[in-house]
Amino acid sequence: MTTPAKFTKEEKKFWQRHYRIEKPDRIPADWYRLHSADSDFGDEYFYFLSLRLFSLEDIYLKDSQITDQSIKYMLNFKNLHTLFLRKNRFLTNQSIQYFNQMQNLKRLDITRTEITLADLCEFLDNTNLLKIFIDSDETEEEIMAMASILKAKVPNCSIYLNCCHSTDVFGTSNKPIF
User: For the chain, what are the domain ranges?
Assistant: First the structure.
């Protein structure tokens, strides 16, 4: 995809508003991290970002306005290793198809979203994932049945339930379901 040399009117507003950037050549092509909590970032934000940004390694996005469409835009970010999407209540299991296409993705946090453990069992197919954080209300028996399905689908991945980090605040390791 070739990026236009000049901003469109809408792009110019976006880059001025969020980053005070006046010209496209001032945008770094590679970013390491995007961090935002309780923001109004939504699909339009990621649309404009994906037009100019080619590499982004970590996205920490807690409680924003994104939908599955934003996840689709994130496919344009090469080298995306970490997606922390806690409390993004508009995400659905439709996002899983995009997670599957993110071949560099190693860590995924989808706690407090509409995506369930059962959704992962049915749709997840990204064997490069190493850690997934998700909530579950299922019984222990149901969780163990789903764990065996996921172990076959993503054998090198640790799945953590009802927590968003592999350690607690005291540094004690949280135990994955496998």
Answer: 30-161
